[in-house]
Amino acid sequence: MPETTPEKLEFARLKGVGRKFFGGEWEFIRGVPSMKFLPEEGPPEIAFAGRSNVGKSSLINALTATPGLARTSNTPGRTQELNYFVPEGDFEGGIPPLALVDMPGYGFAKAPKDVVGNWTKLIYSYLQGRTTLRRVYVLIDARHGIKKNDGEIFDLLDKAAVSYQLVLTKIDKIKPPALEKLKRATLDGIAKRPAAFPAIVATSSENNTGVDDLKAAVMQALHM
Ligand code: GTP
Ligand code: MG
After folding, report:
1. Interval 71-87: pLDDT, tens
2. Which residue in 3, 70, 95, 138 could disulfide with 57, CB within 3.0 to 4.6 Å?
């Protein structure tokens, strides 16, 4: 029998809470093209950041089990605003327990300069200035690992003391030994970063691997 530890029991509990929490209906409530269009600060926000095409929108669809909730594309640069998603329902004071925020990607070399400038401004301002931002999930493509522009985002989050956790995406595209090696290298890469949560989640939105682990991690970030 595998050994049961308090940590394993707590993780199993969080997984159950997460499955229930994400199991309802979700809706898109707002697209934010620049900071002045942000909704009033209300529910805790969990944001999904990462390079263009890393799989941010796909992961939101996998978490909520709602294909097409967030728009995805083969070509980078699909998401161009901060898109807000909340659970459906009547909540006390009209405030839902959580908002998921899908972000435009960074590092998209082919977009026009002024567009990149606007997205970068929006991403940077939001990430360092949103008081209700509870945690940022920074997605890393398992085929590519951490890149220079990911490091710039880590720097910003460390400086602003915003909690973040790394998520490997598209793990269906690499072999198990490569994944183990990548996990170790990725953990080493954030070991000295003060605001980085010292564990990573490995996911595939293609076959749902790790999606329940991510739900549990979000529940943990929300102290649920
Ligand atoms: P931008 O909004 O453009 O920054 O992209 P994004 O990070 O939101 O990526 P998106 O979810 O649109 O996915 C980009 C492409 O990767 C799409 O063709 C997805 O089908 C594909 N993709 C996303 N997640 C996975 C995954 O886990 N496995 C595989 N094989 N493909 C994936
Ligand atoms: Mg997207």
Report:
1. 999 988 888 899 999 99
2. 70
201 DSSP β-pair partners? 167
What stretches in the chain show pLDDT beneath 50? none
Report CA(1)–ligand 2 centroid distance (Å).
42
173 CB near ligand 1 (under 6 Å):
yes
**Helix residue ranges, H only, the chain:** 6-22, 56-64, 113-129, 148-160, 176-190, 211-221
Q: Which ligand is nearest to the CA of 52?
A: 1
In order of their start, the domains of the chain are: 6-221 (3.40.50.300)
pTM comes to 0.96
Closest-CA residue to 133 (of 108, 98, 176, 88) = 98
* Residue with token string 């594309």: 73
Q: Are 44 and 220 in contact (CB under 8 A)?
A: no
pLDDT tens, residue by residue, 112-150: 788 778 888 999 999 999 999 999 999 999 999 999 999
